[in-house]
Amino acid sequence: MISRIDLRGNTLPEGGALRDLLPRAEFDVEAALEKVRPICEDVHHRGTAALIEYAEKFDGVKLERVRVPAKALKDALDQLDPQVRDALEESIRRARIVHRAQRRTTRTTQVVRGGSVTEKWVPVERVGLYAPGGRSVYPSSVIMNVVPAQEAGVGSIALSSPPQKEFGGLPHPTILAACALLGIDEVYAAGGAQAVAMFAYGTAGPDGCPPANMVTGPGNIWVAAAKRYFTGRIGIDTEAGPTEIAVLADDTADPVHVAADLISQAEHDPLAAAVLVTDSLALAEAVEKELEPQVAATKHIEDRIKPALAGRQSAIVLVDSLEDGLKVVDAYGAEHLEIQTADAAAVADRVRNAGAVFVGPWAPVSLGDYCAGSNHVLPTGGCACHSSGLSVQSFLRGIHIVDYTRDALAEVAHHVVTLAEAEDLPAHGAALKARFEWKVPNA
Q: In the annotation, is 125 catalytic?
């Protein structure tokens, strides 16, 4: 059901050589880019008409309008299962606690007497948020996108999710209910690359969507490709690929827990990655044995879980020691990394590359997906070695404000002129000389 990669008995290679030994899904955004390019440009030129046409082509629904009516949002919330509402409200409450603590404050640094630099944090003016709606419905992704944007102070927030044939061309009602709970009333029934194009270019008309400065949210390969296409025109969070879980475990780990957690991510998608890194052959064998009955007892077996576990992106990786295991998980840079070892907190503290780290047996990835308070929009495909998950910071821009008096400038002017001339940019130096009657102070 799941393959093994045995790295025992040899010194582990460094850097890219080690990454090349580890399992990873094929996710060719560059190839998808050529397919989304005409879609994006069609939305640019035809706007809402193109969105309606693509809804019929890709989602099988004939839309009269793309923007979701206010009544549909209210009705979705009114008809929401009370237990689901309670769970969403608790998820929102916990996410707000964590993300509110991430707010940045303006800070002024006095460099010299009369010379200061202030860093002011300004929210993005308008964002377009994407909530997937393919194999599963993700109201949790609505929360994970909206809460940090709101806590950052973004003034204009719109959300898009694919239209659903089952619900008359509207996004899934639980998506709409989550929007209503969060106070988001600008919602569009658009999915895939065309939704990203709608946010990037904007669409005209009474139900049109004004262009956004930034687009965030997970999605399929077409969403990722559209984000790449528009990078530079809009800000993005990341080109999210298939979800990943890596578990670093030793012989203290419970194989029942480990198997359950691997399966929990495998049920997302046939390209989902489930990786166990361990120095315990006994644990590896116990997890392999445990996978069979747990998979048989769940849902989405043939279309998602079995292909995900059997795919090239999933494996049990055997290492000689926990130290080697840390090297492996840092090279892998998982979206989600569980530490199920003795003294798990100390081991977790040594991790350098992960989207989010889950410490010990009582912090499974599923907790982070919904109610830990952390954000589940995280870097995939090894991007955790250079990128972070979605946060309040994602929606803020730091602006430096430089304030110097005449005397403070005079004190450093000769250094500025020297460096300008060293770079063969004499006009840079002349800009200072002009302020001091062409004589450089202290030269």
A: no
